[in-house]
Write a structure and sequence with these properties.
Keywords: Signal. By secondary structure, this protein is mainly alpha-helical. 61% of the residues lie in helices and 0% in strands. It is built from three helices and no strands.
């Protein structure tokens, strides 16, 4: 699994051919607990976090002219927070093998 360190690149990426979303992105996905999750669960959690960040990127890109700066900053913060939360669980997931001596 890769870290979500490319969020700034995602936010600056070029517009895709998808239709511009007008609805605000939903709440961020809750990542699984890295201490108890399986590989499959961690992958699903990563996919959910990536999808959420992408939804925010598209929303911001398509609606930049309509958003107040504070609202824009709020959604950027939400994207970074979702990525950081997932990354923290990923660190626990990877660290549990070290702690268990595997």
């Amino acid at each position: 699994m890769k870290y979500l360190l490319s969020i700034p690149l995602l936010l600056a990426a070029t517009y895709t051919a998808a239709a511009c979303p007008t609805l605000r992105p939903e709440d961020a996905p809750v990542p699984v607990d890295g201490m108890t999750a399986t590989q499959v669960e961690m992958q699903a959690s990563q996919d959910a976090a990536n999808q959420y960040v992408e939804e925010i990127r598209l929303f911001l890109e398509c609606n930049a002219h309509r958003l107040h700066d504070l609202e824009h900053n709020y959604y950027v913060h939400q994207a970074f927070t979702a990525a950081e939360t997932y990354n923290a669980e990923l660190q626990e997931f990877r660290g549990r093998d070290t702690v268990a001596g595997r």
